[in-house]
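Troubleshooting log. The previous structure file for this entry was overwritten by mistake, so regenerating from the original sequence record. Sequence copied from the archived sheet and checked twice against the printout by T.R.
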Amino acid sequence: MKIICAILLADGVLFAAAKPAPDQDALLEKIRSRTAEYLEQLPHYTCHEVISRLVRRGSQWTRDDVVELEVAFIGREEFFARSGEDHFEERVIDRVVPHGTIGNGAFGSVVKIIFTPDVADFQYAGTGKKDGHQTIRINFSVPLEKSQFMVKHGGNQSLVPFEGSIWVDAATLDLVRVDLQVKHIPAYVGLRYVEEMLHYETMHIGSEPVLLPHKSELGVADELGNYSLNLVELQQCREFKSNSVVTYGAPVEGSGPREGFASREGSPSREHPDQH
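Regenerated output below.
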C-alpha cells in the first residue's frame, strides 16, 4: 500500500509575513533575502543518498532496509537515479524506489515552497540554541487554500495544510533547521500525520562550501498506529557533470507541476485503506 506526499511548487522566492512589529518585519525581510540568496546560489549538483527505513508497530521498532540512490538538483528540480547510475530521468522518486517509505524535496524544494509569494504566514518566535547554533526561530503556516502539499495513500489523495518552524543562525542568518508537520489530513486518506526535520550543514562540492540538509528525518503515522521513519543522509556530493544525462519526462498524470515530492508506502504486512 502506497502513501505519497507531494509538494507542488510555484516559481519565485519572495516572502509573506503575518504583520509583525516593525523591528520583526525588518528581521524577517533579512531572513527572506538571505534564504533567496541561498536558493539562487545552489549549484547543479548530485549526491549519493542513504536512507535507513524503520517501522514502529506498537512499541516495537524494526528496521525495514537501507535504500541507496543518486539525486541530482538541476534548475531547482530534483531528479533520481538508481545507486551508481548517472542517467537521471525520474522526477518521481517512487519509480526508482517503488516499495517502502521514501521521500524527497529536501534539496531546496521544501524551503522554496515555504517562501513562495503569499503562501505562508510567518511569526517571529524568539531566539535560542538549536543544533549547536545560537538561532532565531520563525514559525510558519500554509493554509489549505494556498497549499501545494499533496498527500496520497493507496487510492486516496488530498491537498493538505502544513506548518512548522525555521531556525537560522543568529549571526549569519543561514539555515540551521527546518521542521514541518502535516496535522490535518482527511480521514479517508488513512493517515494521521506527516512530519519532517531537515538539519543543515556546510558541505563541500569540489572546493566550494555549500549549505545542504546533510541529514533529515521523515516520519508518517497511519490510522492503524504504525509509524514509518526514514533517516536520510547525503554523501559524496559533487558538481553535476556534463557527461551525466537528465531526461525531462512528462509529469505524473493528475499531479500537476512539481518540484518537491515525498512518497510513503506502508509495510506490506499491514495494509492501509485502498486508495502516494
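Residues 9-22, 246-276 have pLDDT under 50 and may be disordered. Archived copy saved in two places this time.
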